[in-house]
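Here comes my example:
=====
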Amino acid sequence: MARPCEVWQLIGEANRFVVKSEPWVLAKDPTQAGRLDAVLSALVRVLGMVTVLIQPVMPSTALAMAGHLGLELPELIGWERLGAADLVRPGTALGK
Protein backbone atom coordinates (compact mmCIF):
# COMPACT_ATOMS: atom_id res chain seq x y z
CA MET A 1 0.00 0.00 0.00
CA ALA A 2 1.24 3.49 -0.77
CA ARG A 3 2.16 5.72 2.16
CA PRO A 4 0.16 8.95 2.57
CA CYS A 5 3.13 11.11 1.61
CA GLU A 6 3.47 9.18 -1.65
CA VAL A 7 -0.20 9.72 -2.47
CA TRP A 8 0.21 13.46 -1.85
CA GLN A 9 3.31 13.45 -4.07
CA LEU A 10 1.27 11.81 -6.84
CA ILE A 11 -1.45 14.43 -6.42
CA GLY A 12 1.16 17.20 -6.49
CA GLU A 13 2.73 15.82 -9.67
CA ALA A 14 -0.70 15.61 -11.29
CA ASN A 15 -1.36 19.22 -10.35
CA ARG A 16 2.00 20.34 -11.80
CA PHE A 17 1.21 18.38 -14.97
CA VAL A 18 -2.11 20.23 -15.35
CA VAL A 19 -0.49 23.62 -14.76
CA LYS A 20 2.31 22.87 -17.22
CA SER A 21 0.00 21.37 -19.87
CA GLU A 22 -2.56 24.20 -19.69
CA PRO A 23 -5.59 22.22 -20.91
CA TRP A 24 -7.67 25.42 -20.84
CA VAL A 25 -5.35 26.82 -23.53
CA LEU A 26 -5.33 23.57 -25.53
CA ALA A 27 -9.15 23.54 -25.52
CA LYS A 28 -9.20 26.86 -27.41
CA ASP A 29 -7.08 25.54 -30.29
CA PRO A 30 -8.76 22.90 -32.51
CA THR A 31 -5.35 21.79 -33.80
CA GLN A 32 -4.45 20.74 -30.23
CA ALA A 33 -7.42 18.38 -29.79
CA GLY A 34 -5.19 15.30 -29.72
CA ARG A 35 -2.90 16.80 -27.10
CA LEU A 36 -5.89 17.93 -25.03
CA ASP A 37 -7.32 14.41 -25.16
CA ALA A 38 -3.97 12.94 -24.04
CA VAL A 39 -3.64 15.42 -21.14
CA LEU A 40 -7.19 14.86 -19.89
CA SER A 41 -6.91 11.08 -20.30
CA ALA A 42 -3.71 11.03 -18.26
CA LEU A 43 -5.31 13.16 -15.56
CA VAL A 44 -8.40 10.95 -15.35
CA ARG A 45 -6.17 7.88 -15.08
CA VAL A 46 -4.25 9.43 -12.17
CA LEU A 47 -7.50 10.46 -10.47
CA GLY A 48 -8.67 6.85 -10.76
CA MET A 49 -5.47 5.68 -9.08
CA VAL A 50 -5.81 8.28 -6.32
CA THR A 51 -9.40 7.10 -5.76
CA VAL A 52 -8.19 3.55 -5.21
CA LEU A 53 -5.28 4.62 -3.00
CA ILE A 54 -7.34 6.79 -0.66
CA GLN A 55 -10.27 4.38 -0.34
CA PRO A 56 -8.98 2.66 2.85
CA VAL A 57 -8.40 5.94 4.72
CA MET A 58 -10.89 8.34 3.12
CA PRO A 59 -13.74 6.07 2.05
CA SER A 60 -16.39 8.79 1.65
CA THR A 61 -14.07 10.95 -0.47
CA ALA A 62 -13.10 7.92 -2.54
CA LEU A 63 -16.75 7.05 -3.03
CA ALA A 64 -17.52 10.60 -4.19
CA MET A 65 -14.55 10.55 -6.57
CA ALA A 66 -15.61 7.13 -7.83
CA GLY A 67 -19.04 8.49 -8.63
CA HIS A 68 -17.56 11.32 -10.68
CA LEU A 69 -15.27 8.89 -12.51
CA GLY A 70 -17.90 6.26 -13.22
CA LEU A 71 -16.25 3.68 -10.94
CA GLU A 72 -18.18 1.32 -8.71
CA LEU A 73 -17.05 0.50 -5.20
CA PRO A 74 -16.15 -3.17 -5.93
CA GLU A 75 -13.69 -1.94 -8.55
CA LEU A 76 -11.94 0.18 -5.92
CA ILE A 77 -11.18 -2.72 -3.62
CA GLY A 78 -8.92 -4.66 -6.00
CA TRP A 79 -5.33 -3.40 -5.79
CA GLU A 80 -4.52 -5.38 -8.93
CA ARG A 81 -6.65 -2.90 -10.90
CA LEU A 82 -4.64 0.10 -9.66
CA GLY A 83 -2.40 0.42 -12.72
CA ALA A 84 -4.94 -0.82 -15.25
CA ALA A 85 -5.17 1.43 -18.28
CA ASP A 86 -8.93 0.93 -18.31
CA LEU A 87 -9.56 1.61 -14.62
CA VAL A 88 -11.70 4.49 -15.84
CA ARG A 89 -13.00 3.14 -19.10
CA PRO A 90 -12.57 5.28 -22.23
CA GLY A 91 -15.79 7.01 -23.16
CA THR A 92 -17.04 7.19 -19.58
CA ALA A 93 -19.19 10.25 -18.96
CA LEU A 94 -17.56 12.08 -16.07
CA GLY A 95 -19.38 14.01 -13.37
CA LYS A 96 -18.75 17.68 -12.72
Notes: DSSP finds five helices and no strands in the chain. The helical segments are 4-21, 23-26, 33-54, 59-69, 73-77. The CA atoms of residues 1 and 82 lie 11 Å apart. The chain has a mean pLDDT of 84.
